[in-house]
Amino acid sequence: MLISGIDYSLNGPSICIFDGSKSFNFNNCQFYFLSPIKKYSTIFNKNIHGENFQDYDEECERYDTISDWAISKILGCEQVAIEDYAFNAQGRVFHIAENTGILKYKCYQNSIPVEVVSPSHIKKLASGKGNADKNLMYQSFVKETNVPIKDIISPNSSEIKSPVSDIVDSYYICKYLYNNIKI
Fold it and tell me: Can you list the positions of beta strands (E) in the chain?
């Protein structure tokens, strides 16, 4: 059984796909992400794959290409989980909602069940704190997996940012779904 956790966004979506017949851990997951930064368009190791965004002329085309990319990765998954909207989100919240709505609709068209999970549930699963920041999420990830992905993906950066934070989030979204399916 393949399941997927999706950290979906306009600027750095990440997908974690897990083969449910194995034990849940980093090595049994495949990660895919999009980035506007060319240097991230590569395979970082056997299970982390980066790609660049496609060019677009208008926002609807952007949403369509991002959702097509996501669907191409999750086809074959029996269920996916996606992080719900943050209640305190600021900025382009309607654009984010439109983008996410298109992905949900394409999942529906492809008969892929979607579970929507609150950000606080994901943060609590990862760190024990429902309001964990990116640094605490990353620290929890490294402690659990023993994989310092920042050193693999962006070794020269002193801060935790996309795509590292997106991969961490997609991992815990997938783990949340896995734990709920097992229950």
Answer: 2-7, 14-19, 29-35, 43-45, 48-52, 79-83, 114-117
CA 92 remoteness from chain centre: 19
For residue 24, pLDDT beyond 70: yes
Q: Which domain holds residue 80?
A: 2-182
Look at residue 91 in the predicted model and tell me its pLDDT.
65
131 neighbors 142 (Cβ within 8 angstroms): no
The predicted-structure confidence for 57-90, as pLDDT tens digits, reads as follows 999 999 999 999 999 999 999 999 999 987 666 6
Mark out the alpha helices in 75-118 (DSSP H runs).
Answer: 93-109
CATH code, domain with 80: 3.30.420.10
* Overall average pLDDT of the 110-134 stretch: 96
1 contacts: CB under 8 Å, gap ≥ 6: 19, 20, 21, 78, 181
Q: How many domains does the chain have?
A: 1
Residue 20, pLDDT > 90, answer no
Strand partners, 35: 52
Residues 6+ apart with CB under 8 A from 105: none
pLDDT tens sequence across 160-170: 999 999 999 99
Rounded CA separation 27/139 (Å): 18
The number of helix segments (H) and strand segments (E) in the chain equals 6, 7
